[in-house]
Design goal:
four-stranded antiparallel sheet, about 35% helix
């Protein structure tokens, strides 16, 4: 890999007034940046650019979920795709390593990198070139691919099946009520993030608590929307968590207990979560599932969710993150 040009300037934004400079390169989440800055989910010191003279040739930015929080995700990383691939990768590595050393706490594991990509990115030569360059930068800094995911969307006007009557739904009553079901669902999960937590040494209960505390507990929408499904005889079957994050109404989590799988209950759960949000008059509902989770993908398709995008997540393992500081 050739070195990055010596004339390159790598620096953070001097303030929100440089947002237009940051947006000289583009990405599908650009429209969220101003609000993220206003609400503290981003700070200029976490938004970095690489300049060749006055031309922006790369950019990177981290995100958090609340004002004052630590960086939780690297969700912006763009390169000037008019440049030759080796030069792009060299510039990207220099930008990312310089910015990470300044932004991330010394010795901490790096937050994962997430990227939204077109659903047909492998078939489109231009999109494939852009995606592969970004992956190459991440791999050069020690990251590995964790998972590719489907991003799905239900749109207002899409029919929602009525209650089949096979299950009885009730609201979740509290943290422990849901954790009692999340724990067994973690066993045999097809979700790559859940599998990663278990592979790291966490038990199923610990992995469930981590997911609850780091994600589900942060939603401002009512817990009364969350549903536990039971058989008419009272035995639990699974759960669904419809919610709204900072940007969209979502199906945040859905799970069927191991001994209840294989009976099509996933469709009942997804339909109930969709009904809850549709009753709020939302224009769309977003969801995501791992590319390898075929049963969940098929359920979304049956309910009329459209695969409008893909995403991938890359991670730096703890040892590599600590080595790099």
């Amino acid at each position: 890999m050739p070195p990055a040009p010596s004339r390159l300037t790598v620096r953070p934004l001097s303030g929100p007034g440089e947002l237009n400079l940051f947006c000289c390169l583009s990405y599908v989440l650009d429209h969220e940046l101003a609000d993220d800055l206003a609400t503290g989910r981003r700070v200029p010191e976490w938004m970095w650019i690489a300049l060749d003279g006055e031309r922006v040739v790369a950019r990177a930015a981290w995100w958090t979920n609340a004002t004052g929080g630590e960086p939780l995700a690297l969700d912006f990383f763009d390169l000037d795709d008019t440049l030759p691939a080796p030069e792009r990768v060299a510039i990207g590595v220099r930008l990312l390593e310089t910015a990470a050393a300044a932004v991330l706490p010394a010795g901490a594991q790096r937050p994962e990198y997430g990227r939204f990509v077109p659903p047909d990115w492998r078939e489109d030569p231009v999109a494939r070139d852009a995606v592969e360059a970004r992956i190459a930068v991440m791999e050069a800094t020690g990251a590995r691919m964790l998972v590719e995911r489907l991003r799905l969307e239900w749109r207002a006007g899409t029919p929602v099946p009525g209650d089949s009557g096979r299950l009885v739904f009730r609201p979740v009553t509290g943290r422990e009520d849901l954790l009692a079901l999340m724990t067994p669902v973690m066993e045999g999960t097809l979700d790559a993030h859940g599998q990663g937590d278990l592979a790291s040494g966490l038990g199923a209960r610990e992995a469930a608590e981590k997911h609850y505390d780091e994600e589900l507990a942060g939603y401002s929408t009512p817990m009364a929307w969350w549903r536990i499904a039971e058989l008419p005889t009272g035995e639990p079957v699974g759960f669904v968590v419809p919610a709204r994050n900072n940007y969209n109404p979502i199906i945040a989590y859905i799970g069927v207990l191991p001994d209840r799988r294989g009976h099509g209950y996933i469709d009942d759960l997804l339909a109930e979560g969709t009904r809850v949000l549709a009753a709020e008059g939302v224009e769309r509902i977003r969801a995501a599932t791992d590319l390898g989770n075929v049963p969940m993908t098929k359920s979304f398709e049956r309910l009329g969710y459209v695969n409008f995008e893909r995403a991938f997540n890359m991670v730096w393992d703890a040892e590599k993150g600590e080595d790099r500081g």
